[in-house]
Amino acid sequence: MAGGLEPHLAALRRELHGPAVLSVLVALIAVAITFLIWRFVQGRRSSRKAVLLLGLCDAGKTLLFARLLSGRYRDTQTSITDSSAVYRVSQDKSTNVTLIDLPGHESLRLQFLERFKAAARAIVFVVDSVAFQREVKDVAEFLYQVLVDSTVLRNAPALLIACNKQDVTMAKSAKLIQQQLEKELNTLRVTRSAAPTSLDGSATGSPAQLGKKGKDFDFSQLPMKVEFVECSARGSKGEEGEADLEGLEKWLVKVA
Predict the structure, then answer these.
(1) Separation between Cα atoms, residue 250 and residue 41, nearest integer Å
(2) Of 2, 63, 4, 89, which is closest to residue 235 (Cα–Cα)?
(3) What is the pLDDT of residue 248?
(4) Residues 103-152: pLDDT tens digits?
(5) In CATH, which of 2.30.30.100, 1.10.3660.10, 3.40.50.970, 3.40.50.300 is domain 50-195+208-255?
(6) What residue ranges are annotated as transmembrane (predicted)?
(7) Cβ atoms of 107 and 142 closer than 8 Å
(8) Helix, strand or coil for residue 211?
(9) pTM of the model
(10) What sign results for the dihedral spanned by CA atoms 79, 82, 84, 89?
């Protein structure tokens, strides 16, 4: 009996060592590795629940923060510390993010960004659309510092440029703000491209490359998705009216 089975067993062993079976095994291993990588990336993303509100002083971050949470207008003042709260993005109470309003003062903003950047699922960079022409260089400088940060580059959180104060007649449009920021960021990239040197002539390091080398900068070159939206935390009817945050609220639903 055993002798009769031996030829069949030998044939089976040959088939198991054949190229077809090997190809199947390689494909299964590749699928398993891809699945594990996907689970790892998803796990890292799901552990990042914060949406950071960044911007210069007086851009309207704190009023925007209050409006998102309560819908009501309130007087605000320049923040010297962070404020955070859970924001429910839909009627489904299990879908939420943590909004964190960070100070915009020049001496504080990078310090607080350093503290919270690793937890960021998304970033809302708030721009004062009325004062933009006057502040464009400062806005671009801060945004540049955010975009070349190694943690931000690695995690690639979704980025929304919220062009606030659109209720004011002199407010610049989101399209113009995008064009001006791309121009200023391109200038900053050129001026920062050469690594500084110490007194002995050795390089002290250089920031990460922003965008694609050899091409004028635009936001599509970044590893994260960047969108622009026009909004008004104050609203067209002032303190008694509602804020115009529909575009921002829809974006928060997408990134949650």
Answers:
(1) 24
(2) 63
(3) 96
(4) 999 999 999 999 999 999 999 999 999 999 999 999 999 999 999 999 99
(5) 3.40.50.300
(6) 20-38
(7) no
(8) coil
(9) 0.78
(10) positive
